[in-house]
Amino acid sequence: MEKKIGILGGTFDPPHIGHLIIANECLNQASLDEIWFMPNNVPPHKHKTDNVSNEAREQMVRLAIQNHPQFKLELIELHREGKSYTVDTMRQLIEQNPGVTFYFIIGGDMIEYLPNWYKIDELVNMVQFLGVKRPFYTHHTEYPVQMLDVPEIYLSSTQIRERIQKGQSIRYLVPDSVRQYIEENGIYGT
């Protein structure tokens, strides 16, 4: 039987409840078997927040998803050197996982940006895009994107990092296990 897997990519710096809600809603609304959280590699030249290591982001995702049996961690992009294009990642995942149909989850900001994606015309033949509304974006596209009605939560990893740096609480914005990991490891200036 063919497996249906959703891919949720991002920096997850840190992962927060918005990511988990999106993943859970996509899992259920699109009748997927699993959601694979795929942290991307932050290239050395790109500004990294407080130099949070890939290992720390990997561990935070692991902690965030540990209690959901259908959430998995996919490290293919985290361990790839150089520029990472979605089309290359998906080509590799499809080769490694015969009998799997992949669904690629994107937010409103990415939906508007689709025409600029590298080899987008090839990519739309490889995956089904699942679109999630985000506040302040139009969500209009010429590309085949299946829009899902997911509760809109205006929350970003940037906001969470800023709250931490100001000494404000992030309780309930990230899973408790992630909050404890951030505090115990002094991440983001805690």
Please supply descriptive tags for the structure shown above.
alpha/beta; 6-stranded parallel sheet; 18% strand
List the helices and strands and how they pair.
Layout: E1 3-10, H1 17-29, E2 34-39, H2 54-65, E3 71-73, H3 86-96, E4 100-107, H4 108-113, H5 120-123, E5 128-132, E6 145-148, H6 157-165, H7 176-184
Parallel strand pairs: 1-2, 1-4, 2-3, 4-5, 5-6
Quick summary of this structure?
The protein has 190 residues and is α/β, with parallel strands linked by helices.
Domain count: the total is 1
| DSSP E strands, number | 6
Count of discrete alpha- or pi-helical segments spanning 4 or more residues: 7
- Annotated CATH topology: Rossmann fold
The percent of residues in helical segments reads: 25-40%
Ranges where pLDDT stays below 50 over 5 or more residues in a row are none
Please give the radius of gyration in angstroms: 16 Å
Describe the 3D structure:
- The chain is α/β, with parallel strands linked by helices and 190 residues long.
- It has a single domain (3-152), classed as Rossmann fold, CATH 3.40.50.620.
- 34% of the residues lie in helices and 18% in strands.
- Strands 3-2-1-4-5-6 form a six-stranded parallel β-sheet.
- Helix 1 (17-29) links the parallel strand 1 and strand 2 (34-39).
- The longest helix is centred in the first third of the chain and has 13 residues, at 17-29.
- The radius of gyration is 16 Å and the shape is globular.
- The termini are far apart.
- The mean pLDDT is 89.
